[in-house]
Amino acid sequence: MVRFIALTLAALVGSALGASPFNASPPKTSNTRKAKMISKLMEGARPTENSQLSRGLEQVEIDLSGYEIKFEKCQFVKTYDNELAENEESTSVLATKRFVVFRLCPSGSCESCAYNFGEYVIDLESYLEAATQYFVQDRENMCGQCNEICEADDDATKALGLVDCDECYNYCASIENMEDNGYIESYEFTECMQVYQSDDGESQVFAGAMCSNNGKSIKIGAFSDEECTYSKSADVENYLENGLKFNDEILEKVVEEESCVSCVMTDYEVPDANADDAAANEEEEAEVEMNEMCQNLYEMSAKCESKYGFDNYWKDYEEYENQYVQEDVVCDFISSLNSGSYDQYGEISLSGSSGGGYGSATGAQKFFLTVFILGTIGVGVYAASLHAQLMGGGKADLSAQGGAMA
């Protein structure tokens, strides 16, 4: 029980892939959004006395070319939310936060990923935005390569055997004519959107991304609210216009565990079949280009690296010095997400982490456990504030903190 409370406390403090490597070009995230993301993940964490160790460090470029991204888990977590608490019309003070845990594994070690890897957590929306754009762009590049080779008059180019023209033609045609064939891309519904409203306006259905029961896949679910917080026991496909069905190809690639996505961009350039070997060798030795999906997810995520021997340890990267001193908090938070402390809907599950079969928590147990945890956080914040005043040489004003002076 103590371990569970510790993991849940870490979660509250912290709450704040295809068969081939793909050539993604998602837009670079602004510094404002990046800061907001880091703030969300690290909300409540405070600098320690060792923080001066990371001051004055020069920014260094992190080389991820020798790594691959591996999806680990999708998890919803219900945590206390100030806005809901202040909203008189709200029926709950708990908001649903959505997270994805992923790893950076050394190239070629995707199946084991046992050493020299990093583990990371990021919000579901950011992960899906980067990953889906990446896979969609790769598909477009692949079909572009297919057309360029298969429609070329140069038989030598076709003889290179880079693509199977019959196979890629059929595949790309099926993507182009998807809606005519009765399908629509499911990844287009990952951001919460309304798909149905009754004539009287009383009944509404929203579609949005949600985690599967075991967290190993992401699917499009039906929800009753515009924030996609309250799920409905309905098949969202039944509410799509014109009887369309989902094509899950992209969404399945986003979470595919059997193969990782290289942090080096795939080269879809069609080589000149008539070029000499020397020129070809020079091209091969050209500087590798980073996959922007890999780079952006790394920059935006909270990191747990040193305990796994990650070679490119980020403590020397000045933008992450606060994460450096809070790495244990991040590692504990990721551990709580992976341990089964929460069910599919983000509710606390007492049976998840220990394997002892305690059963699900009742509403009262969850309420008092949440109150206990929030009270613990409050005591910690008060203690930190009092410590700062005393260490600063000033006399702590207890009366200002709500206490009475003798």
Beta strands, count? 10
Helix-strand sequence = HHEHEEHHHEEEEEHEHHEHHH
Number of helices: 12
Distance between the termini: 39 Å
Kindly estimate the percentage of residues that lie in beta strands according to DSSP.
15-25%
Q: Spatial order of the strands in the main sheet?
A: 9-1-2-3-10
| Mean pLDDT metric | 74
Tell the overall outline: flat
Q: Rg from C-alpha positions?
A: 25 Å
Task: Report on the biggest sheet.
Answer: 5 strands, antiparallel
How would the blueprint of this fold be written?
Layout: H1 2-14, H2 31-42, E1 67-80, H3 82-86, E2 94-106, E3 118-123, H4 124-150, H5 155-158, H6 165-176, E4 183-185, E5 193-197, E6 204-211, E7 218-223, E8 245-247, H7 249-254, E9 261-262, H8 277-284, H9 292-300, E10 302-304, H10 321-325, H11 327-338, H12 363-391
Parallel strand pairs: 4-8
Antiparallel strand pairs: 1-2, 1-9, 2-3, 3-10, 5-6, 6-7
Helix pairs in contact: 1-11, 1-12, 4-6, 4-9
What does this 3D model show about the protein?
By secondary structure, this protein is an alpha+beta fold. It has a domain at 368-395. It has 12 helices and 10 strands. It has helices spanning 2-14, 31-42, 82-86, 124-150, 155-158, 165-176, 249-254, 277-284, 292-300, 321-325, 327-338, 363-391; strands at 67-80, 94-106, 118-123, 183-185, 193-197, 204-211, 218-223, 245-247, 261-262, 302-304. The strands form 3 sheets. It has a 5-stranded antiparallel beta sheet with strand order 9-1-2-3-10, with helices on both faces. It has a 3-stranded antiparallel beta sheet with strand order 5-6-7. Strands 4-8 form a two-stranded parallel sheet. A hairpin with a 6-residue loop joins strand 5 and strand 6.
